[in-house]
Amino acid sequence: MKIAVCAKVVPEQARRIDPETKRLDRSGEPTLNPFDANAVEEALRLKGDDPGAEVVLVSLGPERSLDALRKALAMGADRVVLVSDEAAAGSDLVASSYALAQALEREQSELVLFGQQANDSDGAVMWAAVADRLRRPLISQVAELTVSGGTLRGKRQTEFGYDVIEAPLPAVVAVSDAINEPRYPSLKGIMGAKKKPQETVSLAALGVEEDRAGESGSRTEVYAVGDPPPRGETQKIEDDGSGAEKIVEFLLERKAL
Amino acid sequence: MPTLVFLEHHDRELQKDSLGVLGKAAELEGDVSALIAGSAVEGLAAQAGRFGAAKVFIAEDRALEAPLPQPRVDVAADLVRSHGFDTVLFGATVLTADVAAGLAARLDAGLNWDLVDLMQENGKLVGTRPALDDTVYVDVGWKGEPRLALIRTGTFEPVESGGEAEVERVDVQLEDFSTLATMLEQAHEESEGPSIEDADVIVAGGRGLGGPENFALVEELAKALGGAVAATRAVVDAGWYPYSTQVGQTGKTVSPRLYVAVGISGAIQHKVGMQGSNVIVAINKDPNAPIFEYADLGVVGDLHEIVPKLTELVNVKNAAHFPRD
Ligand SMILES: Cc1cc2nc3c(=O)[nH]c(=O)nc-3n(C[C@H](O)[C@H](O)[C@H](O)COP(=O)(O)OP(=O)(O)OC[C@H]3O[C@@H](n4cnc5c(N)ncnc54)[C@H](O)[C@@H]3O)c2cc1C
Ligand SMILES: Nc1ncnc2c1ncn2[C@@H]1O[C@H](COP(=O)(O)O)[C@@H](O)[C@H]1O
Hints:
The complex is a heterodimer of chains A (about 260) and B (about 325). By secondary structure, chain A is an alpha/beta fold. In chain A, about 25% of the residues lie in helices and about 30% in strands.
């Protein structure tokens, strides 16, 4: 079975706004979106030791993403297709899903896997847009996945409990972060990763017209970035052995004990 | 701004978040339509009318019986095209997120998610989206129409206006790929286990506990504090703890006097279920864990060190307050 895994590269510590400068903390290295490691792991599990199976990473992002994507190659994925183009900068869901779908059409994999959410956008929606473009059945939020005889079965949690959904291949599946424990790359894996095929493709090569990419292809915009509403004081301390005592003191002070 | 609100239902009831979004749309616009898709759902139209819908579109088909997203994208896309809705709103759930994103692709329309407010500014629709673990609030908008939005769980309260809706049945046309996914077992609730909704004190455990056996640490602390034990989705899905104890978007919403989060990263989907707690204490070894953004007291350290000590100290305090003589 050929499996494509959609994996995003995100800045490691871009989850913080510096409270003084109000700017995004970009000091972190680009890193594989941690939720996508679950998708890579699931792909490797499904591939098993079938020599005919292949796991291809498909990513949309800047050229420098290749270093971080190599982590997934070191885990065991077979190759990378990175859609990288200046014109793709600033793409929203509509534009990104179109570029990803075009790259996935080229691969024609039987299964397309997604992670639970991109650590920087927290959308948890990309798969549904891509599945619609690919015209393939979708199962999202999957915490348990089985494949047998061309049929997928996924168990997932909703607001009301657990659903079990079935779909024929080819299909699109988004996995939850509870589905597995991603492996650590072995030293051999890390050494071998550099030699695996890593292809960078432009939007033009995928037939994506300029007006369907980047800001011109996007349908949402950001007007202003502001502070959250004021909240109570938050206090953070390092445990130096007295953490438990400090919690008790705090609870007594707040009359919570 | 002809607006369509997608209404989710479960067990023959419209969902509270959907009705809350409907009320907000009616406040912004006045003339609001709603879509209810399912099988034998016409009876729900009256309730939609009472909560703000001027018109209700009923889409009934066997393929819409199970709450799967793809056939709902077909129905919503047809309705938006035929009636020229320029705004489509959803209360965010596992189902509606997939419907909204599928619809965005189908109509090449902008989708803004996780909104906590929506307003008209000089004739322009503007949404408020908390980002980066809610450390910033971003004003977002749309280029072109239709404008699609997912509203964060628990944002708008339903408002009963007592109106009556005009009802129209829609012709359901489905794409071939939309009915390929099928529901084998629906919303099977694994409900055995304790109830946490009324607890005054909650000690919640996450994946940082490392395994189900370590929930004993959390249970002992909860016992000392006279509280209940809760869990994150990650540990519930892994089978470490029952679904009935899960806090968050797809679990329970709780607001105890004290919430102690142990080995929990503090994802937004967890936060929406517990941010109403009076006092929040977090123990996590990662100083960058998002939970520290909203805990009243955060302790950066190893739960295996801190929790047993804390339990012991609380037990000592309890003994001093209630001497056994
Ligand atoms: C649509 C949707 C709905 C969702 N609904 C919910 C929901 O209802 N409820 C919910 O909880 N989640 C929900 N989630 C999942 C959510 O996004 C997170 O994936 C989940 O909350 C993470 O659980 P966790 O904090 O236990 O695990 P992790 O994110 O893995 O966090 C574990 C934490 O433990 C810390 N840790 C590890 N070892 C130690 C140690 N020895 N001492 C101290 N700290 C340690 C780590 O630093 C880490 O921060 C939902 C997601 C989606 C997309
Ligand atoms: N730029 C991208 N390149 C590849 N995959 C992506 C990209 N953005 C999102 N994804 C995939 O879509 C999932 C959900 O992303 P999001 O909807 O942005 O939270 C991620 O876990 C990835 O699997």
